[in-house]
Amino acid sequence: MKTLANAMEKQELVLRLGAIGPASQRRWGRMTVAEMVCHATDALQISMGEKPAKAAGSWVTRRVIKPLALWVPRQWPHGFRTVPECHPRLGGTAPTELAKDLSELRAALDRFTSRPKSFQWPPHPIFGAMSEKDWMRWGYLHLDHHLRQFGT
Questions:
Q1: What is the tens place of the pLDDT at every residue in 8-18?
Q2: Fewer CB within a 10 Å sphere, N or C end of the chain?
Q3: How far apart are CA 144 and CA 91, in angstroms?
Q4: Burial of 98 by CB count in 10 Å (0-12 exposed, 13-18 middle, 19+ buried)?
Q5: Opening angle at CA 106, ends 105 and 109, nearest 5
């Protein structure tokens, strides 16, 4: 199962990020490519405790959905809502210039994958407590999901 703990799998995502641009068209959802980039950055910042987010999960999302989403080998379905702090129109970061926003996403991805083993990961707003292994799997799946959304 792919994870950001694997340098080659992280590099695959970085290369795919390089394939998106202003003309990238979504295959599903409502976000523009620029909004998706900001959304992905916000999600990584929340995961590292750099940006606050209110808990929005339940025992179902923590105990049932989380293990299914992270460890059942299938692509994530479309249509799940994000927390307002990650939504570029509801409290998340609004896009500026795509190249700048992509640079910020790559920097956040580098910080995310270089946390020391002693790092205390905050709870996921929906999934609750997660181990480093969970976070690395989530990070891969989340970015992969949104890159597929825009055809890469």
A1: 999 999 999 99
A2: N
A3: 23
A4: middle
A5: 85
pLDDT at 81 over 90: no
Domain membership flag for residue 99: yes
**Mean pLDDT, the chain, integer:** 97
Tell me, yes or no, whether 2 lies in a domain: no
Residue with tokens 């181990």: 131
Q: Is the dihedral of CA 87, 61, 129, 142 positive or negative?
A: negative
Query: How many domains does the structure of the chain reveal?
Result: 1
**What's the CA gap between 128 and 126, in Å, rounded?**
6
> Domain limits at 76?
7-149
Whether residue 76 is contained in a domain is answered as: yes
The pLDDT of 14-30, averaged and rounded, is 96
DSSP-derived 3-state class of residue 105:
helix
- Average pLDDT estimate for 113-136: 97
Look-up: residue for tokens 């020391």?
116
